[in-house]
């Protein structure tokens, strides 16, 4: 009897936990169909008192929204590309080769992961000001890449280390060079790790707020996370548009997760079983 009830208990617990995590998104979707007045009504109602379906059209046709979306895509894709290009050779060299200072290098990489962007935002602004890079995409791409590079190196380091040495030796006997070995043999074997690094870097850059708020001045160059502030200010409160824009901003991340879910799960659980 206990064995029969246990799967049901696990399923019920998983359903409750899933509902808790999905509840904020459900509220966000429902609030996007409310009027701004209905959002602020006390006591609140679960369903909108008046369904408003033209809010999404208002957001999409807002001349500022496409610019915010383009900035978020440029910064997220640019930072992800920089991280992958730098992390792959760094992780490969530290995992497959012993050289002086290897341990110190990995320690420094790990320490950089401990610094929060908020604590460094003043120094970052000063540095990019001296480089005349304030209000540029390059400043956000470099910053987001720097803050996510350590994670990518560490996760790829683990994948490269898990590949048997015999695979590398067999490729060397077949006359495959270092670059060919990395491109044709190592990278396909570390695909789950690459996917994991890509998705986490992309989401971190997509959701970054503090540095973008500090470095981006022109309204047309702000990413979505900063641009959304324009919907709720001291002079106007368009809560319905804020929630609708937030729902739209979540869609690309959800689609990306759905497309690479299998590889992502493999990357997170790799190495857990010997």
Task: Write structural notes for this entry.
By secondary structure, the protein is mainly α. The chain has a single domain, classed as MetI-like (MetI-like fold). Helix content is 74%, strand content 0%. The protein contains 14 helices and no strands. α4 (65-96) runs parallel beside α7 and α4 (65-96) packs antiparallel against α10. The longest helix has 32 residues, at 65-96. Mean pLDDT is 81; it is low at 267-274.
Radius of gyration: 23 Å
CATH topology: MetI-like fold
Beta strand %: under 5%
Percent helix, as a range, is over 70%
| Helix/strand structural class | mainly alpha
Main beta sheet strand tally, sense and closure: none
CATH superfamily name?
MetI-like
Give the oligomeric state of the chains in this entry, treating copies of one chain as homo and distinct chains as hetero: single chain
Spans of at least 5 consecutive residues with low confidence = 267-274
